[in-house]
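It is worth pausing here to work through a concrete case rather than discussing structure prediction in the abstract. The textbook approach is simple: state the sequence, then state the predicted structure, then interpret. We follow exactly that order.
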Amino acid sequence: MRRVTRVVLAAMLPASVASVGFGQTPPIDPMAAMEAMSAMDHWMTMVHGWAYLNYNDQGGPSGGDDFESQNHVMGMASHSFLGGKLTFYGTLSLEPATIPEPGSHELFQVGETNDGVLLVDYQHPHDFFIQLAGAWQKSFGADFGLRFYAAAVGEPALGPPAFVHRLSASANPTAPLSHHNQDSTHISYDVLTLGLTAGIFTLEGSGFHGAEPDENRWNIQAGAIDSYAVRLTAVPVPGLTVQLSGGHLTNPEAAEPGNQNRFTGMLAYETALPGGFLAVSLITGQNQEPEEGARFWGTLLEWTWKFCEWNTTYGRLEAVDRDLFELRFKRQRPEEVPLDRTRVYAGTLGYVRDFPLIPKATTGVGADVTLYRFTDRLDDVYASMPVSFHVFARIRFDIGLGGGGHAGHSMH
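Step two, the predicted structure:
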């Protein structure tokens, strides 16, 4: 039983425990793990969590500094059912209490609202309820599988795995500037997803409520299923994932009335290395809004490299389209003002040093620095060369229990 429990945990971690869509890259064959789980006659539970204690300093006149904590706790319980695997998921965050209002300072970030006004230069905190969901999946032979996922709060089949669950972003405490072009639907309401796996391909379709979370970060914002998405994922060789998705969102942004179409693409590679791992993701996404010319791209290249057991370097390069009016005046552009789109570039480089402190957990300290490039028309708002940095302490744990009480840990 020890070997079976550890095999199943290896397939679930680090990605699929947190994000239950199919578009993940587990380190071993997921079908083998599914078959092993379907043969179990006991519940298997797992808890995964992490927290940063972070000093955040964003430079220039539009920046600011604060102490804050980004954090997640994710739990799951699985059992064989009707010849397949039934799994319940729960993901929570205390960020509504641990990140000061209106959010975490982040230069050039745009999305969601505070007191009815568009948030600019802030990353909003995650809701307390990030995922409350159940899934049933079954394999039919070695190359075919079926999965059904239902969530009061969860992630539809749109975009890459959310940045908080991507191995390539696992050491970085900061949300990508392209978050709202790519994976912002990872907290959606009333989600139904059906997925089919055939060989190296997985095709998923979702219906869900399109509005993003409101300003009450402690509630569940139920609504009609008014949006849809389709995602195709291929794993041509172990560790390499190619993914395309598209979706229609009904009134996603409270400060920007109107529907939105989103298209995303991802190329990701993950591999275990002696003393660590390497994870790299190239992701792009475009939001198409009703206004003429309103096509906003967001593209990133990010990586995390853990080596010599205790050392991790990470980085992120981004190019994002922004509305010049919103950056200058920190509010939604009025309809009578013509669209003036500009592009912002950002580059981050960071390092984390882990050390043993708490049993069954990984603790560490780290820091990063971010530089920017943008039009000189924003120099009076951001200064010509703002510099941002984080200094943080981090704790992370992965604990899995089968019927025999054996634990397992992810590559994190």
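Step three, interpretation. The chain has one domain: 2-401. The chain has six helices and 19 strands.
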